[in-house]
Amino acid sequence: MEEVSFYQVYHRLRAIHRQRVHEKFSKIGLSKGQPKIISYLERHDGCIQRELAQNCHVRASTVTNLLMRMENEGFIRREACKNDRRILKVYLTAKGRAIAKEIERINQEVDEIAFADFSPTQKQETLAALVRLCDNLETGGGEDV
């Protein structure tokens, strides 16, 4: 077998995963970026737009456009903060909470496909290795990169 690098495997995995989930998300009427926002709001309902941008790793202008579309589609509602009327808090609607459940179902379905021939131990070891890779990259692996 030809030797492959982490870079090659990671980008192939990322591209295939994105393609699979995007196909499924588009079937339920979601565009790119919306699932990430909805999933974050499910855990942090009532957050502000700046928090969404930071935690979803999306530009503030992109979040604004996504939220306008999501509000028009009935997934979210925005309300002015009681303490500072200039700040808008973002909340999922009932329709948004329902679509969040669909997002979770799709993510689980794609996970099952990805780990189809893995034993439970292999799956946990793989996930642990991926978490460790993330931690190493975030901290620099204890060394300056």
Walk me through the topology.
Blueprint: H1 6-27, H2 34-43, E1 47-48, H3 49-56, H4 60-72, E2 76-80, E3 88-92, H5 94-114, H6 120-139
Antiparallel strand pairs: 1-3, 2-3
Described by the principal axes of the CA atoms, the overall outline is globular
The residue-averaged pLDDT reads 92
* DSSP helical segment count: 6
Using only C-alpha atoms, the radius of gyration works out to 18 Å
Helix-strand sequence: HHEHHEEHH
CA distance, first residue to last residue: 29 Å
* Content of β-strand: 5-15%
Instruction: List segments where confidence is low: pLDDT < 50 over at least 5 consecutive residues.
Output: none
Percent of residues in helices comes to 55-70%
Summarize the structure.
Helices cover 65% and strands 8% of the residues. By secondary structure, the protein is mainly alpha-helical.
List key phrases describing it.
single chain, 145 residues, mainly alpha, 3-stranded antiparallel beta sheet, 6 helices, 3 strands
Structure description:
The chain is mostly helical and 145 residues long. Helices cover 65% and strands 8% of the residues. The protein contains 6 helices and 3 strands, in the order ααβααββαα. The chain has a 3-stranded antiparallel beta sheet with strand order 1-3-2. β2 and β3 form a beta hairpin. The radius of gyration is 18 Å and the shape is globular.
